[in-house]
Design brief:
By secondary structure, this protein is an alpha/beta fold. Helices cover about 35% and strands about 15% of the residues. The chain has a single domain, classed as 3-Layer(aba) Sandwich (Rossmann fold), CATH 3.40.50.2300. The longest helix is centred in the C-terminal third of the chain and has 22 residues. It starts with 8 loop residues before the first strand and ends in a 5-residue tail after the last helix.
Length: about 140
């Protein structure tokens, strides 16, 4: 990460920006207490956030109902220190100087709440580990 940035910047990317990346961004936003700049985007954004993801996050006190899927842009990747992909394949542009991680997670698209809960919990665990790595002095 650049020493010129006041806080690290993370971009979560999945295909539709309707489930996994939205949940990850919401967890990092909440857990970092504004110490990390958080973005999410999709290579082919859906029209709306997955209702099962909204319901699963509401169960842990996070409201995704006002979120909307966003298109992945080159500018978003360039502005991020860490880019975490979740099943977007080769559609994510790669730039030198960024840290790339690929999280293999089940896709919640078309699944009910029972299937989405374990995905949500896995994402929260990964976000907590990421946060400890990004801000070790605050872990």
């Amino acid at each position: 990460m650049s020493d010129l940035r006041p806080r690290p910047s993370v971009l979560f990317v999945c295909v539709h920006n309707a489930g996994r990346s939205q949940m990850a961004a919401a967890f990092l936003t909440r857990l970092s207490h504004d110490r990390v700049e958080v973005r999410s985007a999709g290579s082919a954004p859906a029209d709306a956030v997955n209702p099962a993801a909204v319901e699963a996050m509401a169960e842990v006190g996070i409201d995704l109902s006002a979120q909307t899927p966003k298109i992945l842009t080159v500018a978003a990747v360039r502005a991020s220190d860490v880019v975490i992909t979740m099943g977007c394949g080769d559609t994510c542009p790669v730039f030198p100087g960024r840290r790339y991680l690929d999280w293999t997670l089940d896709d919640p698209a078309g699944q009910g709440i029972e299937a989405v809960r374990p995905i949500r919990d896995d994402i929260e665990r990964r976000v907590r580990l990421l946060l400890a790595d990004l801000l070790p002095e605050h872990a």
